[in-house]
Amino acid sequence: xxxxxxxxASRRLARHFRRQVMSSLSSLAxxxxxxxxxxxxxxxxx
Length: 46
Hints:
Elements: H1 3-35
């Protein structure tokens, strides 16, 4: 098994995963806004 190829594949997978997470977060924010929730509830971070 070549280490370089697996590293490239993991990087590609991470990029795909990040894109899915961002799209799901934006859709979740859109649903919350349509329900009438204040946007401050969503970014209630540490």
